[in-house]
Each structure stands twice: as C-alpha cells, then as structure tokens.
C-alpha cells in the first residue's frame, strides 16, 4: 500500500497533495472562481469560539497531518497539457473511518474554465478506485446540494447511487442546507 503523500494518476490528470510552492497557483484559481464556487462552499455557523481560518501554509500543514494520519486526503486536481501542469481543482476523501464502518465521503470543486469536460468525474472515479483498492474502504458518500445539477451528474457518472436526502446537513453559503446523498460500495467488500 502507498503511503502519504499519495499520487493518483489518470492519463493527463493527476491527484496529489498541495505543496507550499503551489500557493500562487491555488490562490489564482480560487480567486478566479470565488463567485462561481460561493453557492456551494462550506461556511461556518457563528459560534463565539471559532478560530480564524488558517493561512494557505496552515491549510497545507493541516492537510498533510490529516493525510499522514489517514483521516482525510485533500488533493489538488492537476491537468498536464504540453508538459505543463495546471491546478484545476481540489478533491477530498474526508471523514475516513476504519474499523467496522470503513468509509468516508468525497467532496470536490473544479475551475469553471474547465467545467463540463469530464475532469471532475475522472477525479472522483480515480479517488474512489484508490479508496476501494488501496485503502480497502467499504462505503463512500458524496453529499451535494439538490440544486447542483452538475455535481449530481458527476456522482451518477462516477457510479454513485442516490440513497436519500439529509435535511439541514451542512452549513453552506450562510445557512444549514439540505443535501442529496449518493453512495458507492466497494464491490470487492460486499461479504
């Protein structure tokens, strides 16, 4: 089995941890997509003890710690064109629990300039394959907003099956929002 930092490849697409030196690329793509991503971004409810969000370097340190401890794998989605890599999004296999549950959940975002080209679906399929083969997870969920038709297509094209609705599941865009739950189970672990 591989160890952190994981590298998952699918032809010209690769999933790998963000590095400190990726800061400018990450900030550029996030800035360019801020308005487009805002309706789907997780927010934090107002609680007095909330600490400020970490800097980019703090975020990368946290992602690396979580990856080494196998609690969450946050990976940049990189596209290689003519020998050059470009950051086009991010995907996370989070909430990893082993033991009797052996599962987690996948979340993702993609640069609007490359949306609807199949890259997100390929990234979800690649990470799901990795989770089922390398980590031997049994169940993975994708939870998405009902009005996010593009994300629903990604889940369905990636082989995830609709399981149900979770009322007020996550705090998104300033309020608790309902989510649709899609699930994939490891076909090798169905005993």
Give an overview of the whole structure.
This protein is an alpha+beta fold and 191 residues long. It has a domain at 8-138: Gcn5-related N-acetyltransferase (GNAT) (Aminopeptidase, 3-Layer(aba) Sandwich), CATH 3.40.630. The chain has helices spanning 23-32, 34-37, 56-68, 119-133, 149-157; strands spanning 8-10, 13-16, 73-81, 84-97, 103-110, 139-144, 161-172, 175-185. The chain has an eight-stranded mixed sheet, sandwiched between helices. The radius of gyration is 16 Å and the shape is globular. The two termini are 22 Å apart.
What is the name of the CATH superfamily of the domain at 8-138? Gcn5-related N-acetyltransferase (GNAT)
Taken in chain order, the helices and strands follow as: EEHHHEEEHEHEE
Low-confidence stretches: none
* Share of helix, binned: 25-40%
For the record, the CATH architecture of the domain at 8-138 stands as: 3-Layer(aba) Sandwich
Arrangement of strands in the largest sheet: 1-2-3-4-5-6-8-7
Instruction: State the CATH class of the domain at 8-138.
Output: Alpha Beta
Mean pLDDT: 94
Report strand %.
Answer: 35-45%
Query: Structural class per helix/strand content?
Result: alpha+beta
Write down the Rg. 16 Å
Biggest beta-sheet profile: 8 strands, mixed
- Give the termini distance in whole angstroms: 22 Å
At the fold tier of CATH, the topology name of the domain at 8-138 is Aminopeptidase
How many E-type strands?
8
Q: Write down the overall geometry.
A: globular
If helices are DSSP runs of H or I spanning 4 or more residues, what is the number of helices?
Answer: 5
């Amino acid at each position: 089995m591989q160890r952190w930092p994981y590298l998952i490849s699918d032809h010209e697409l690769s999933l790998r941890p963000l590095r400190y030196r990726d800061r400018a690329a990450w900030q550029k793509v996030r800035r360019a997509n801020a308005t487009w991503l805002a309706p789907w971004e997780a927010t934090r409810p107002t609680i007095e003890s909330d600490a400020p969000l970490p800097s980019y370097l703090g975020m990368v340190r946290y992602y690396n710690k979580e990856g080494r401890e196998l609690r969450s794998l946050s990976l940049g989605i990189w596209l290689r064109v003519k020998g050059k890599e470009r950051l086009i999004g991010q995907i996370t296999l989070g909430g990893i629990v082993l033991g009797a549950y052996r599962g987690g959940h996948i979340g993702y975002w993609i640069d609007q300039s490359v949306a609807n080209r199949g890259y997100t679906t390929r990234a979800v399929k690649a990470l799901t394959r990795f989770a089922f083969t390398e980590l031997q997870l049994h169940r993975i969920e994708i939870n998405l907003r009902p009005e996010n038709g593009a994300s629903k297509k990604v889940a369905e094209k990636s082989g995830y099956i609709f399981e149900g609705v979770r009322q007020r599941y996550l705090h998104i865009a300033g309020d608790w929002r309902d989510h649709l739950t899609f699930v994939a189970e490891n076909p090798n672990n169905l005993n």
